[in-house]
Design a protein that fits this description.
alpha+beta, 4-stranded antiparallel beta sheet
């Protein structure tokens, strides 16, 4: 059996369509893991999807979006984190892996990438 390699990175604005697809899938499959609903997210405009990701890409961000990609550069997992006022206290949210990729350590890849990004975010504030 061929080993599939995965990598995690911040979600780029250019990936907004892939992000939208997996987020809507996640809201259908596991809505309890999210603070939104499929119907509400479907109503977002393309510009709103891009703006959502852009808000996590600036150095003064209060949101982080991370994706795990397969070899074909498709999302197989997403997750994120946000803070309100104190950037030393973050909440990891909206963690989702596609059902066909569960049990392969992808959640670990995702969470470690989120933690690494949070360490980088903390460094911006010092």
């Amino acid at each position: 059996m061929k080993e599939i390699k995965y990598h995690a990175e911040k979600v780029a604005i250019a990936d907004w369509q892939k992000y939208k697809k997996i987020r809507l899938e996640a809201l259908k499959n596991d809505p309890q893991a999210f603070s939104s609903f499929y119907g509400a997210e479907c109503k977002r405009t393309d510009e709103e999807w891009r703006e959502r990701l852009a808000s996590g890409l600036c150095k003064k961000n209060k949101k982080i979006f991370i994706g795990v990609f397969d070899q074909a550069n498709n999302f197989v997992a997403i997750g994120g984190a946000f803070t309100k006022d104190d950037t030393r206290e973050w909440n990891i949210v909206a963690v989702y892996a596609t059902p066909e990729c569960r049990g392969r350590g992808i959640g670990k890849i995702l969470l470690l990438a989120i933690i690494d990004e949070l360490k980088n975010a903390a460094a911006w504030k010092n």
